[in-house]
Write a structure and sequence with these properties.
Chain A is 39% helix and 17% strand. By secondary structure, chain A is an alpha/beta fold. Chain A has one domain (37-120, 135-299): 3-Layer(aba) Sandwich (Rossmann fold), CATH 3.40.50. The radius of gyration of chain A is 21 Å and the shape is globular. Chain B is an alpha+beta fold. Chain B is built from five helices and eight strands. In chain B, strands 3-4-5 form a three-stranded antiparallel β-sheet. In chain B, strands 1-2 form a two-stranded antiparallel ribbon. In chain B, a hairpin with a 2-residue loop joins β3 and β4. The two termini of chain B are 25 Å apart. The chains are: A alpha/beta, B alpha+beta. At the A-B interface, α1, β3, β4 and α4 of A face α1, α2 and β6 of B.
Chain lengths: 305, 153
Amino acid sequence: MALNIRTYHDVEDGASDLGEQVAGQQARVDARLAAVRHVVGVMSGKGGVGKSLVTAALATVLARRGHAVGVLDADLNGPSIGRMLGCPRHPLAVHRDGIDPCMAPSGVLVMSMDLLLDPDTALHWNEPSEASFVWRGTQERSALREFLADVRWGPLDALLVDLPPGVGRLAELHELLPDLAGVIAVTIPSAASRDAVGRSLDLAARRGIRVLGLVENLRGYRCETCGDDGPLFGGDASDELSRRFDVDPLGALPFDPTLDRAAAAGALEAWLSAGGATATDLSGIAARVERAVLGEPCATRAAAP
Amino acid sequence: MKFLCVDCDEQMRFEERQLPGDGTLAAVFRCPSCGRMTAMLTNPMETQLVSSLGVKVGGRTVPEAPFEGIRTGVGSGREDAFEAADPTPPGPADAPARVTWSVEAVERLGHVPSFVRGMVKKIYTEYARDRGISEITPGVMDRARTDLGLEGM
């Protein structure tokens, strides 16, 4: 005898409520970021172009210009923002309503896997290891959601999200934050970077994500003795990408050994205070980001955790 | 996902969640009419997939805790990455002066990732104290996990 089984939708709701749970997760992201004026992604598509350094330095400059700034390190497997911004390795305080971010000496609020892992330890997820490809991506997407929703960011003028190489995390970020203010793309002059960054810009265009501008990093080598710039890479990726995708150039940065050392030591604030040509270049980029999206500082840190 | 009691044509209701071992997640459902119970078992990969989504089969019994997925999922975290910020509320009048741990419970606690072990120990201790339990055993830990929604801890 054939059983007369009802359909899924014929049966009243209330059993698993997985849909409501997922909607609740999104609501938590929205509620947490209600006091954040602008969320800005920093992307490249290519690894090794200095994207995290640009993010950390830009955040520090914006903080010095009076903005309340947070940095979310979405590069879960290669986190470096905590070190660059000089975050002390204190335990993060867990409250019932969220987790306090680290406050860098510059006042920038930071959340990064860098703060949660032992030095020289790779991120690995608990068992099972077999068929981990099935769930690893989901786990990482959930971690990004928790970084957004569970950190007590407080009121911010800008939350910069440092995206890992590749285009997948940008899509995830945009799904979580359809109102993303935009992205800053970072490239180096080489043809390989032009191709990889071009793919990221293409994805941004296809998803309707606003590109705030393009930063060309490692354009030449700035000698720390004489201050002169010498050649480093061949190519004109920035000009080509700006033309092809109609993206505004935000500025260029040379490879400056003093900046590199400052980032490695978590001393960007002191490096900026010392001034110099590269610090001036960074200020110019920050000013263009302000004009493109941030406007005047607004969020007050007094109400921040 | 819904479970239907075919005899009664009634949707079965979520009863409880258990982690019996081997990475298995057991979600138990009961028919509200005839009382028949059925358990849905997931294999370790399915358990991990559900866990990675940050959802609870059968529905949530407690609100999602901050970094719940990260704290239960990351296996290589720093031991002192987190500390509880909220002051511990006073326990009930009949709370035991001291909560002890059985040898078996300590052994099981050792399986919790070091990343969150300190916090998990505190949660279990508060759970026991609030209920007047003076010794934490694996059975108490099981009940706490179910009551507090601590799958994976």
